[in-house]
Design goal:
The chain has 126 residues and is an alpha/beta fold. It has 6 helices and 5 strands, in the order E-H-E-H-E-H-H-E-H-E-H. Strands 2-1-3-4-5 form a 5-stranded parallel β-sheet, with helices on both faces. The longest helix has 13 residues. The two termini are 13 Å apart. This is Response regulatory domain-containing protein. It comes from Pontibacter saemangeumensis.
């Protein structure tokens, strides 16, 4: 079997984080986590990450700012990591806002776990 893909979950709610982690681990993904925007940047610089599930309302640096920072990264591999926004406030953003920040896709909260798995697979299929 191919080497398992690594997903970074940026989420400050431990309940959502643990549920999402369990669902993706059942699909054989390797999971890294970040509770705030500062940790997100550290994780992408220290690990090979195949996709990011980015909660937009995380402390320190919100998901939109993190995404912009990742997209502007000098390392092209880091700058091109697929980013899937996860938010309960999608109404506060338009698809244009997401595109402008560099977000590839988005999942509304409460998470639909089937949609979660399908979306992650779509961006990590090699």
């Amino acid at each position: 079997m191919a080497e398992s893909k690594t997903i970074l979950i940026a989420e400050d709610s431990s309940v959502i984080l643990n549920l999402t982690k369990k669902i993706l681990e059942l699909q054989k993904y390797r999971i890294l986590t970040a509770k705030n925007g500062g940790e997100v940047i550290k994780q992408v610089e220290n690990n090979k990450i195949d996709a990011i599930l980015m909660d937009l309302n995380i402390p320190v640096k919100n998901g939109m700012d993190c995404t912009r920072e990742i997209r502007a990264h000098e390392n092209k591999e880091i700058a091109s990591i697929p980013i899937i926004a996860v938010t309960g406030n999608a109404n506060n953003y338009s698809m244009e806002d997401f595109k402008e920040a560099g977000i590839n896709d988005y999942l509304p909260k409460p998470l639909d776990f089937d949609a979660l798995v399908l979306t992650v697979k779509k961006y990590t299929a090699s």
